[in-house]
Amino acid sequence: MPEPAETKIGCKAIMRIKKDGEKWIVNKFVVGHNHILLTPRSTSFLRGHRGVSKVQKKLIMTLNESGVPTRKIMSVLSKDSGGDFSVGCIGKDVENYLGSQRRKIFEEGDAQMLYSYFLDRQNKEPGFVFSMQVDNDGCMGSYFWADARSRAVYQYFWDVVTFDATYLINIYKMPFVPFSRVNHHHQTIMFGCALLVNETAESYIWLLRTWQEAMLWRAPSTIITGDDKAMAKAIVEVLPNTTHRLCLWHILQKFPEHLAYVYNKFPDFQKDFRHCIHETITTDEFEQEWNLIVVKYDLGENTWLQNLYSRRDKWVPAYLRSTFYAGMSTTQRSESMNKFFKDYVRSSIMVSDFVHQYEKAIDARYFKEKEKDVRKKSTRAIMKTPFKIKEEASLVYTRKSFMIFQDELFNSLRYQARRLSLTGEKAKLNRLPEHYVLDRWTINAKSRPILHIPCCDAQVSVEVDEPTMRRSKSMIQLYDIVELASQSAEKHNHFTLALEKVHKEMLAMDEHVECSQAVPANDDQIVRSQVVLNFSQTVQDLPRVPTKGRPKSLRVKNPKETQITKKRRCSICKNEGYVKNNCPSI
């Protein structure tokens, strides 16, 4: 709670000076103060003594764009300055500076800045695509984007895709819809993403058509989504030949919600139901057990269960045994990506900022993939059994794929060993048949060139501007010199004199024209592109809906997650809030 205080207390203490030729003269000096004087160390809290330096501003922006909260930014500044009293500013000053940067974005327009960035990015990277909806009033609607790298990767791993819309991101509370799947290392990767203004069938139809156009109209074999009618309608219209599977995990979470009375009345229902879903192999087995459960627990009149049963071919494993899913049976891959992005974004982030944070997150994912590639090439897999077929497989598959292959082979050999011991036959496991090797799990899964997407090298990151590169190299060299200078007073004095000399020489250099072109004169300006374009269309921001405080969660939760937890009740006095061990009546 703020503590109101008056800063004007009528103190007459003053020292006034003026310049007389080459001298400074004190022409007025009043010594007396009407308040307690502060120590020199405490003056760092006064507004007139505080300020955020140019170097600190750059560091603050770097940390903020990396997702570091303000309180931790202050910890970094304190550590870098030698203590809290040496920083020169307080946490409120950092918050005010970041707030001023956000206000500048609003002055230019959040949507307009995003539109400008997309056009600039497309100019630099021909393979980058985006689409933005604009209403009759010029307000920003839904938008989708994908870089060349993501579009190229889709051509290698297009078979199974999942997308989900359970994460509300940015100040406009727009659902974040990522398209994802697993690569040859079994890592979750992205095929583009979108922010939607609503979750209607029309929005999903627009999104799927836009996404398919970006992916060269190559439809996935299978798509996994949540149980959403709008999504289902859009998939039928845009992807009629794609197998649509519902997320099994989400469906199972709804059973306790809709059949709570059955769970409470019949303790064996959950065990029977799980056996029916997970243990049945054929559709006939499932149908037989399902009918027994419906009769046994009197569920024939339950309309929700009947509706779910009518779509059993989209979620029951027995109906989907012959469909390839690459280890993905639920949308939890998308939800894991939502959790991953949560480390990069905040609830108050603007859409233009979110795009940059998204790119950082994607770069981090591709860095992990590159790390797996290097580890595969520089190490050897550990063999559980000395078979030549496994050595051959270890050279073909990625490390994760080989581990899965090795476990399956080991389990199969245990069965074969029992059979061979009875028949006296010898196992022949010398070669790995090529027709059994699926290219998407091998180390060469991405070796095929993609001709229709320009600049689609999957390992190339977003281009870094030259001023940033020069600044980074200079800082690395300077840190080494500063470390040496801190070792003794002699080294520190030598470094200080040399630094002053270099500083004067650089100020005297006639490169102000080149510097003004490379770096804006206003250091407070947030630089995101090196090309300034004139846009014929102006895009307005969406109206913001003010909320009280930070939302408890950005993810859309189902009713089971938001239900009130039952309070503990004492079995002796029957009061709530404690159990009998803590009962005051004992």
TrEMBL record:
One of its GO terms (biological process) is regulation of DNA-templated transcription. GO terms for cellular component: nucleus. It is found in: Nucleus. Keywords: Metal-binding, Nucleus, Zinc, Zinc-finger. The keyword Magnesium does not apply. Residues 160-254 form the MULE transposase domain. Pfam families: MULE. InterPro entries: FHY3/FAR1, MULE_transposase_dom. Belongs to the FHY3/FAR1 family. This is Protein FAR1-RELATED SEQUENCE. It comes from Juglans regia (English walnut).
